[in-house]
Amino acid sequence: MNTAAVLTGxxxxxxxxxxxxxxxxxxxxxxxEWIRTRTGIAQxxxxxxxxxxxxxxxxxxxxxLKSAGSADVDLVVLATTxxxxxxxxxxxxxxxxxxxxTVAAYDVAAVCSGFVYALACAAGAIAAGVAERVLVIGxxxxxxxxxxxxxxxxxxxxxxxxxxxxxxGDPSEPGALLAHDLGSDGSLKDLIMVPGGxxxxxxxxxxxxxxxxxxxxxxxxxxxxFRHAVTRMAExxxxxxxxxxxxxxxxxxxxxxxANVRILHAVADQLGMDKERTVVNLDRVGNTxxxxxxxxxxxxxxxxxxxxxxxxxxxxxxGGVTWGSTALVWPDITTDRDISPKTPRSS
Length: 347
Ligand code: COA
Description:
This protein is α/β, with parallel strands linked by helices. It has two domains: 4-169, Thiolase/Chalcone synthase (Peroxisomal Thiolase, Chain A, domain 1, 3-Layer(aba) Sandwich); 177-203 and 212-329, Peroxisomal Thiolase, Chain A, domain 1. It is 30% helix and 22% strand. It has ten helices and 13 strands. A five-stranded mixed β-sheet has the order 1-7-6-4-5, with helices on both faces. The chain has a four-stranded mixed β-sheet with strand order 8-13-12-11, with helices on both faces. α4 links the parallel β4 (75-79) and β5. The model has no long low-confidence stretch (mean pLDDT 94). The structure holds coenzyme A.
C-alpha cells in the first residue's frame, strides 16, 4: 500500500485589526453595498505596519503543531505571495522561530493556489520518504502590496495565516489526502501581477521616504480572473473527484479558495453541487490568498459545519495563473478555539 499524507493538525491566525467596508469607503470611492454584492466580503483583517508574513506564519504554525500534539516535523513548506524578503525564502526563518532547529524548509509561490500546491509538495515528500511529518503553512500580508488608490484590489484582500500538519500514514485513514490535481497557464501571467522587484524589472532603489512606485503594487484584471477561476476550479475539482471515486453530490463540504462568493457558487453549480455545501468565510476575512483554505477549514470547524468523517473538496485558483484541488475525509482532530480561534465578526 502507498504511503499517504494524513492531516493531523490545524491552526490559524489573523491579525487583530479589523477593516470594515465602511472604513474603506471613507478613503476610496466605494461602498459597503458594492463590496458585499459584488464579492460577499464585509470585512478583512490587516496587519499593523511592521508586521511581516513570517510573524503571522509563526503564530499559525505554532497552533497547528499544538493541534497535532507534537512539534516533531522534518519539513516546513510555506505558501506565500508576500514573503518577508525577495531572498531568502521565509520558511527557514519560520522553522527556526518555531524551534524546529535544522529541518528542511522552503517557500512555494503559486499565489492564491499556493496552499493546495504546498499540500501536494508535502504529500510528495512524504510519499518519496523525504519527510515523515510536514508543517504546511499559507501566510499572507497583502496589505503590504495593495495600492491604496486602487479600489478594485484594496477592497478584496486581507491578511492572515493558516497551517496544517501532515504525517505519513495509510490512504484508508481519515485525513488522508486522496487525490491531487494541479495546473497552470503562464500565458495569462499578466492577469495578476506585481510587476516590479524581480529580474524582469528590478527595483530602482528609492531609499527616500515618499510615494511608492506604481509597479511595486499588486494589480489584477478582475473580470477575466473571475471567468478563468470558475472554469479551472470546476475542471480541477472534477479531476480530483474522479480520482477519489466520489460523486459531486456525495461531497459534504466544498472548501474553495475564498476569492468571491459568486465564484464559489458558480463552481458548485458547474459541479452539480448544492450551494449550501459551500464553506464561506470571506465575509469575515476577505481574500487571504494562500491562507484562505486553512482559514476557511478552521472557521468551518468552529462554526460546527465540518465534522469528522465528512468528505471535503479543496480547490483554488490564483495568479500565474495556477489552480489546484485536493480531496480528503475530515479527520477527528482537536481544533478548539484556543488552537483555532473563531475569526471574529465585526458588529
Ligand atoms: N467599489 C465600487 N465600484 C467599483 C469597485 C469598488 N471597489 N471596483 C470596481 N468598481 C466599478 C468599476 O469601475 C466598474 O464601473 P463602470 O461600470 O463605471 O466601469 C463597475 O464597478 C464594475 O466593475 P467590474 O470590474 O466589471 O466588476 P465585477 O462585477 O467584475 O467585479 C471583481 C469586480 C474584482 C469583484 C470581480 O471581477 C472579481 O471578483 N474577480 C475575481 C477577483 C478574484 O477573485 N481574484 C483573486 C482570484 S485568485
